[in-house]
Design goal:
The chain contains no helices and four strands. By secondary structure, the protein is mostly beta strands. The protein has a four-stranded antiparallel sheet with strand order 2-1-3-4, with no helix packed on it.
Length: about 110
């Protein structure tokens, strides 16, 4: 992302809007820029269930808006959009747990 070069206010916070492409459902989050070199790129981490809750897996269009730092506003109305893009949200598959619902019994027949 290259938000810094398109930002028009000093020391902004960024409001992210993610809109699911099939349902048009939107979720919002204010994220912190983690980049060590904002002259080259901007970096953000999104954690589902912590920063926001994605309603379903799938493709999302995202919009990023600049706003005064500390405003905490989650409504993009009237804000300046600094970037638009597309993201893919998916669950990382993990191995299933093995479960046995009965006690194992050994029988010896002679």
């Amino acid at each position: 992302m290259t938000l810094t070069e398109l930002t028009t206010i000093s020391n902004p916070e960024y409001l992210f809007e993610f809109t699911e492409e099939q349902s048009s459902e939107s979720v919002y989050a204010i994220l912190t820029n983690e980049s060590l070199s904002t002259t080259r790129y901007d970096e953000f981490t999104v954690i589902d269930g912590t920063d926001l809750d994605f309603p379903i897996d799938g493709f999302y269009t995202y919009n990023v808006y600049e706003q005064a730092n500390g405003s905490g506003n989650l409504d993009p109305t009237g804000l300046n959009r600094v970037e638009t893009g597309r993201s893919h949200v998916y669950v990382i598959d993990t191995a299933p747990n093995e479960y046995t619902d009965s006690t194992e019994t050994e029988n010896v027949y002679e």
